[in-house]
Design a protein that fits this description.
Blueprint: E1 2-7, E2 12-19, E3 23-31, H1 33-36, H2 44-65, E4 75-81, H3 85-101, E5 106-110, H4 111-117, H5 119-122, E6 129-134, E7 139-144, E8 151-155, H6 161-171, H7 178-186, H8 210-225, H9 232-257, E9 262-266, H10 273-282, E10 287-289, H11 301-314
Parallel strand pairs: 1-4, 4-5, 6-9, 9-10
Antiparallel strand pairs: 1-2, 2-3, 6-7, 7-8
Helix pairs in contact: 2-3, 4-11, 6-7, 6-8, 7-9
The structure holds 5'-O-[(R)-(carboxyoxy)(hydroxy)phosphoryl]adenosine and zinc ion.
Zinc ion binds next to helix 4.
């Protein structure tokens, strides 16, 4: 089954053509990072306007790269949420128009399902699985009994982990998005500031990162007031050590409690090099799969992969009516 997939939930405009959930025939990702960098974060109105500028062109490019015509497409899939509502609506309208014009079935896909199914592009998914979904907007531990079944075990009580990375980076005077920069600098420093490990001692699977972020901000201000300089590499290493201690330990505990055959780590923060190195050394008795770097941050191939499995379970929409939803949860099981 050949699926044309569209993703526009935040600041990436992306179209991919994916065969049978695994074979990525073409993949265009236009990132707006350079446009939003100067504001220190994504400006929703600017993001929507830029999606409008590029969206139809990248449909054509994806088809051309895959050497396919619209008639060759079996299904059109598009991120329906969660995300920035203006951004979502651009992708949804473009996908709906394409599906309508070429008389193809249409399907809305939960962005969070997409992140998890990114891991299925290059790996065989095995169930029951335990998914750690870590991105700019979400930090969740999810139990998957089978394909397309999502039980939320725990989530962040405040900031998402990617959001904490971005805010810590900003406090340290680093650019946006901060995650990759903090990750690079962490590799050059040591865990010398001994930051707290939030919620590590709690038996449940919830997370909290806002206190950790505040600990960094307070320490940086204390140093400034004393006229001393903080060691940026060490601060990044200390922050990252604390985050990874918590993420890895909670994941290990949940995988054991639920006997997850496989651990799936997905979302933008799954691109973290420190995490990719540590988790394989620290969880030895479970298979761990992580998407390729390009499928960790937002992209349309992951939407095409999730759409394939959703179609097996639920089929597509009977008509072309699809709305955007900015606050969908992981437990939404699609139409
Ligand atoms: O999944 P994603 O592209 O968008 C959302 O759905 O939120 O995730 C973006 C987040 C940003 O907060 C970014 O700083 C973070 O992923 N990120 C990283 C790394 N690469 C991206 N965080 C830590 N280490 C990285 N290497
Ligand atoms: Zn995302």
């Amino acid at each position: 089954m050949i699926i044309l997939a569209v993703e526009s939930s935040c600041d990436e405009s992306s179209v991919a053509i994916v065969k049978d959930g695994k074979d990525v025939l073409s993949h265009i990702i236009l990132s707006q990072i350079d446009i939003h960098k100067r504001f220190g974060g994504v400006v929703p109105e600017i993001a929507s306007r830029n999606h409008v500028v590029h969206m139809t062109r990248i449909f054509d490019e994806a088809l051309k790269d895959a050497k396919l015509n619209p008639e060759d497409i079996d299904l059109v899939a598009v991120t329906k949420g969660p995300g920035l509502i203006g951004s979502l609506l651009v992708g949804i309208n473009a996908a709906t128009a394409f599906a309508f014009a070429h008389e193809k079935p249409l399907m809305g896909v939960n962005h969070l399902h997409g992140h998890i199914y990114a891991a299925g592009i290059d790996h065989e998914m095995k169930f029951p699985a335990l998914a750690l979904l870590i991105s700019g907007g979400h930090t969740e531990l999810i139990y998957m009994k089978e394909h397309m079944s999502f039980q939320l075990l725990g989530t962040t009580q405040d900031d998402a982990v990617g959001e904490a990375y971005d805010k810590v980076a900003r406090t340290l005077g680093l650019s946006y998005p901060g995650g990759p920069i903090v990750d690079e600098k962490a590799a050059l420093g040591k865990d010398s500031y001994h930051l707290p490990r939030p919620f590590l001692d709690k038996s449940e699977y919830h997370f909290s990162f806002s206190g950790l972020k505040s600990a960094v901000i307070n320490l940086v201000h204390n140093y400034e007031q004393r006229g001393e300089k903080i060691d940026v590499n060490d601060m990044c290493a200390s922050f990252q050590a604390s985050v990874l201690d918590v993420l890895i330990e909670k994941t290990r505990l949940a995988a054991e409690a639920f006997d997850g055959k496989q651990i799936i780590v997905a979302g933008g923060v799954a691109a973290n090099k420190g995490l990719r190195k540590r988790i394989f050394n620290e969880i030895l008795n479970r298979e761990i799969i992580i998407p390729k770097m390009e499928y960790c941050t937002d992209n349309a191939a992951m939407i095409g992969a999730a759409a394939y499995y959703q179609y097996q379970k639920k089929g597509a929409l009977p008509d072309y009516l699809l709305g955007g939803e900015s606050t969908l949860s992981i437990e939404d099981e699609g139409e």
